């Protein structure tokens, strides 16, 4: 099966999509490696595949490639038992003439900020939370389990969702080590949901979940040539997810994005305000209905070139994107070019907009609440986390990387100060007078920009975005770059139509070439993966 067949329509996680190698692992006539959720479910029904064989395949891929990629921080020791249970349930449910959940028997990896009430840790990549016990599954995990999904493990990330320090490498955490981009091993995988993107790109799992505050889904998706969806804030519950800034936090998917989005959206009593407010955006019949090859017909798409088109003179990327714009036009879209967003230089600079100030204050306030609710934990506050890092510099590389953002956040006083309230009002005004005004005045359905820098615009207003593979930078060793489609709150149906139709019209993505690591490296990573609690 060609790699592009594992596409946006078949793929659904909020963060990444698509497949990897041309190598095939087969059961009967079925190839696992390039299969989508829809393909896998069909293979289940035709008895060409079982959940056990699927999990065994991914465990083998993790053992083979994870020593190089460091995408998976921990595997679920109960994964095979869960697969056997799913196979047994499937036989019984089919025999009774009932329907299976849309993700039944499908393995899913979760970013290591998303709590699971099982044998897995939830640590944000930090040794400070190793061995902590969460009170319950995160809201999105509860919905995944109800849909029949199997939690395969946790993915690596930029430690504390990149809130340890902006000076640390993206994709690095003390527990997980340095995540590697499967296309350019010396290049960045971006973050903070790096492992979620890497694992899907490298075919270590069917789908994965990530979380975004400011680019944490869109950037890894772009850099690892996968489809990623960052939903409207509130569309998915953040309950049970280690927080960064609740004003902007949202849970998204990597790969098979629309199927997973359908499974995890909706109201959650433990995140009642935002999820109740966003309920009105959920369409009757779910999101799969918007996977249309003619989804670009009649769409009005704005092109904001400044400051997002900053490619060197003669770069192949500039030419590629001009070609993509022609493709959008030929597919029936109306492009409104050379638009400008008011105060864009302020919006794209978190220090100038005040976003960073609010983020640090929110992080301290919300993290302290999260830590106090844990059943057991080595740390109970952000101050404890800072002290833990200072007192445990003997742990892997912890002494080599700073924690200045954690320290700066600890010095804040929460969100009750006049400065913080004033900044929130400023961010709302920047969104209203900038992105929202532009979209309304030009009657746009979406904005299209290269890469993931537009995430700054989407972040401060809680807007949705989708990244789709678009190009490979010849001047940067073939580093992938995506195209980002962003829209107003609740416009996921339009964005899915646009992104899916673009993907089908271009079929840009190609799989990376990877080789397995040595037996010694495999053994060392195996020890890491089974070291839960």
From TrEMBL:
<feature type="domain" description="Amidase">
    <location>
        <begin position="54"/>
        <end position="452"/>
    </location>
</feature>
<dbReference type="Pfam" id="PF01425">
    <property type="entry name" value="Amidase"/>
</dbReference>
<feature type="signal peptide">
    <location>
        <begin position="1"/>
        <end position="27"/>
    </location>
</feature>
<protein>
    <recommendedName>
        <fullName>Amidase domain-containing protein</fullName>
    </recommendedName>
</protein>
<dbReference type="InterPro" id="IPR023631">
    <property type="entry name" value="Amidase_dom"/>
</dbReference>
<dbReference type="InterPro" id="IPR036928">
    <property type="entry name" value="AS_sf"/>
</dbReference>
<keyword id="KW-0732">Signal</keyword>
């Amino acid at each position: 099966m060609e790699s592009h067949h594992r596409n946006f329509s078949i793929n659904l996680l909020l963060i990444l999509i698509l497949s990897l190698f041309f190598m095939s692992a087969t059961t009967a006539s079925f190839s696992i490696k390039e299969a989508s959720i829809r393909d896998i479910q069909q293979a289940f029904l035709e008895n060409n595949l079982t959940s056990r064989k699927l999990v065994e395949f991914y465990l083998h891929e993790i053992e083979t490639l994870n020593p190089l990629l460091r995408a998976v921080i921990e595997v679920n020791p109960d994964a095979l038992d869960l697969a056997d249970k799913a196979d047994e349930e499937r036989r019984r449910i089919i025999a009774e003439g009932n329907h299976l959940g849309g993700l039944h028997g499908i393995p899913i990896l979760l970013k290591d900020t998303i709590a699971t009430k099982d044998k897995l840790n939830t640590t944000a990549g930090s040794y400070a939370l190793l061995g902590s016990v969460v009170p319950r599954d995160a809201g999105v995990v509860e919905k995944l389990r109800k849909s029949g999904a199997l939690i395969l493990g946790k993915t690596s990330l930029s430690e504390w969702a990149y809130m340890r320090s902006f000076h640390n490498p993206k994709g690095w955490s003390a527990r997980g080590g340095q995540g590697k981009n499967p296309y350019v091993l010396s290049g960045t995988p971006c973050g903070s949901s790096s492992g979620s993107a890497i694992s899907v790109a490298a075919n270590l799992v069917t789908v994965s979940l990530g979380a975004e505050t400011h680019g944490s889904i869109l950037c890894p998706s772009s850099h690892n040539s996968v489809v990623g969806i960052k939903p409207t804030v509130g569309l998915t519950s953040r309950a049970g997810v280690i927080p960064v800034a609740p004003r902007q936090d949202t849970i998204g998917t990597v790969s098979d994005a629309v199927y997973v989005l359908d499974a995890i959206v909706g109201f959650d009593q433990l995140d009642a305000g935002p999820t109740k407010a966003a309920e009105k955006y959920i369409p009757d019949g779910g999101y799969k209905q918007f996977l249309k090859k003619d989804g670009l017909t009649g769409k009005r798409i704005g092109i904001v070139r400044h400051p997002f088109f900053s490619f060197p003179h003669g770069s192949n990327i500039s030419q590629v994107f001009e070609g993509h714009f022609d493709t959008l036009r030929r597919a029936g879209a109306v492009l409104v070019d050379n638009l400008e967003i008011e105060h864009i230089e302020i919006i794209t600079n978190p220090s100038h907009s005040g976003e960073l100030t609010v983020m640090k204050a929110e992080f301290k306030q919300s993290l302290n609440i999260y830590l106090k609710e844990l059943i057991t934990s080595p740390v109970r506050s952000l101050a404890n986390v800072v002290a833990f890092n200072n007192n445990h510099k003997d742990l892997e590389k912890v002494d080599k990387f700073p924690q200045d953002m954690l320290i700066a956040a600890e010095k804040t006083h929460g969100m009750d100060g006049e400065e913080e309230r004033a900044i929130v009002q400023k961010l709302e005004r920047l969104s209203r007078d900038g992105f929202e005004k532009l979209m309304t005045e030009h009657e746009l359905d979406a904005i299209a920009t290269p890469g993931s820098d537009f995430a700054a615009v989407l972040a401060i207003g809680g807007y949705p975005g989708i990244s789709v593979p678009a190009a490979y930078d010849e001047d940067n060793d073939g580093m992938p770059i995506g195209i980002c489609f962003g829209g107003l709150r609740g416009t996921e149906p339009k964005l899915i139509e646009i992104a899916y139709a673009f993907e089908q019209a271009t079929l840009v993505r190609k799989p990376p070439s990877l080789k397995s690591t040595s037996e010694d490296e495999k053994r060392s990573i195996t020890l890491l993966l089974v070291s839960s609690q």
